[in-house]
Design a protein that fits this description.
Blueprint: H1 3-15, H2 18-25, H3 29-43, E1 48-51, E2 54-57, H4 59-83, E3 90-96, H5 101-115, E4 119-125, H6 128-137, E5 142-146, E6 154-169, E7 189-193, H7 198-209, E8 215-220, H8 223-231, E9 237-240, E10 252-255, E11 263-271, H9 278-294
Parallel strand pairs: 3-4, 3-5, 7-8
Antiparallel strand pairs: 1-2, 5-11, 6-9, 6-10, 6-11
Length: 295
Amino acid sequence: MELHQLRYVLAVADTGNFTRAAAKSNITQPSLSQQIINLEREVGHKLFHRLGRKAVLTEAGSTFIERARRILFEVDNATKELSDSPALGRRITVGAIPTVAPYLLPPLLAQCRERHPNLEVHVREDFRSHLVRAVVDGDLDFAIGALPMKDARISIEPLLTEPLLLVVGKQHPLASSPRVTVPDLEGETFVMLGISSSLAAQVQNFCGDHHFEPRIGYRCAQVTTVKAFVAQGLGISILPRVAQSPDDAGSLVYIELASGTPTRELAVIRHLQRYQSRGAEQFLALLREMAAKMA
């Protein structure tokens, strides 16, 4: 049994398809299929039901796959531990949700480069559910996202609780209002992030808790687009405090709601069984410092 065979089995299980698994593994589909057939002969069980283009784990495959994941995690941890020397360059991969990555990571990476010049940091910006999956699969050392994030295989370290602020254009009537409450938002047009965004879900839940359905006029992929639409008077939005920039002063007004300002809690998630390299701990220490200053 070879490690690459275990990786191929995981690739098929994750993609549900031999062709996609082969592309993910940078191998031809016939070669991957033959490797898995060889492995099935060795273990004496079929690991997959071949249902046309779809590959589904058999009962034996489901049992085998969990063992395979643990084996590959331990091999990866051993490799990292053996190579984790101050004399060697180190590499970590960090994930963050789109409403965190552009604001927290650039200054953090600059500080990291200054304090730990030998640490190589790679960043993946993605939606919360994708980051949780990447941490579980071992593709990320850790990730930063908004709670809740649930999976029995991850640890959660609360990092920062920040307010979500109402954002309106300079000319909007609410911009000069001495006191803005939740009922003042009813009937307004909202500019929101896409439905895959954890922030969009939080805003939707906040409105639901106050018994009104926001009228969503626009959905955007990025916070910068949301800001541009709001600045043009096309609607209002609710954004995290971290997204507020000095450049917004000429076109946007950020307002704390007088009744029930919503908040979000950011956290760091890691795999419970993943070895944390010295480089990962160094980066996390800087992240905790920054979060403490922002609190």
